[in-house]
Amino acid sequence: MSDEPLKERIETWMVGQMPIIQMHGGESVVREANPETGEVVVELGGTCSHCGISNITAQNIKADLIRDFEEVRDVVVRVPDTGEMTSDTVEGGRGGELQFSTEGSDHF
Fold first, then answer.
1. The domain containing residue 68 runs over which residues?
2. Residue 49 gets which letter from DSSP?
3. What is the CATH number of the domain that holds 50?
4. Which of 3, 27, 31, 99 yields a CA-CA distance of 20 to 30 A from 42?
């Protein structure tokens, strides 16, 4: 296992495994990655908020994170109703401060 924190490893994974998010004008942010509880929270933004297949992207992220990270047991992917895209992202559209609805953890 890497000495790098889980959150940073997941951010790196998102850049490599989910480039389609950024290619389509979307963004993603890993909000929580707790190696003790196995809980991960990822938020999608940008054009993901208006995309008809963001639920498929979310399901793929969930399944792949659980498969690829031994310590990950539960993944929540949030998609905003509205929100501003920001320029505060890292490579691959990752890392911005997105604005999200509070309607539910899996709101699409």
1. 1-108
2. G
3. 3.30.300.130
4. 3
